[in-house]
Amino acid sequence: MRESNAARPAVVVGIDGSQAAIHAAQWAVDEAVSREIPLRLLEIIPGNVEPAPGNAVGNVQMEVEYGETALRTASAAVEATGKPVKVETEMVQGDPAKILIDESRSAAMICIGSVGIGRFARALLGSTATEVAEAAHCPVAIIRSRQSRPKPGSPLIVAAVSDTPDGERVIDTAIHEAQLRHAPVLAVGVLRADTADMPSGELDRRVELWGKRHPGVQIYAAATRTAITDFLAVMDRTIQLAVIGSSDADQVAKLIGPHRHPVIGHAECSVLIARS
């Protein structure tokens, strides 16, 4: 059922037949094109499905047919973008989180729709997305379909910058995304209670330095002593993507929130966990 592609780097998208998964695949196209690597669409059918007679729910053949249809639909959506990306499709059986985490060992990025993987867990952010966000070995993007009317101004890419070891990785990733998506960056200095205060003007100095390195990207600065989720909750600009470090991966569920009832006011805000 699966070709051996694990040794080849690719941007891997979890496909489950949902519109959110298709949107994640379309979002991931630019990631693959910019790296000049394939886009791998991975359909995962449940590993505990037992054969059943006739048309009973849970029949393996029905799951396979559903998966093949989902892959064809996602492939067609990617091709419709008209962008020069090589598309690979795979179908595997097993636990979605375990398979995606295993894929992350060689993938350039894992992309998941915000409702998770699997037809049985679409009402809320799936446990699959949360588990993969925290345990993957590569960057993980959890992509929301836009639900609300955009607010005035260009949609921002927000980077949660701190003095943690992955702080520079976060801003580098945010700038890369800004270049891909022609968007401004808001670098939010997250001042943690358990660390020394960032020196006065340090964030502004960093932003000025980043701006000189990347003159084509607009970079702004803001600081907060609250969690990044609380800061984003009161933003009056549309946020298309929040880039966080692996140390904040446990905030994913709160950043995304339930599919139709987000915890914060940015139902359109996707999340990217930056990792080397």
Automatic annotation (TrEMBL):
Coiled-coil stretches noted in the UniProt entry, renumbered to this chain: none
Organism superkingdom: Bacteria
Every UspA domain range: 11-144
Taxonomic lineage from the root: Bacteria, Bacillati, Actinomycetota, Actinomycetes, Mycobacteriales
Bilayer-crossing regions: none
PANTHER family: STRESS RESPONSE PROTEIN NHAX, UNIVERSAL STRESS PROTEIN UP12
Family: Belongs to the universal stress protein A family.
Entry-linked Pfam families: Usp (PF00582)
Protein name per the record: Universal stress protein
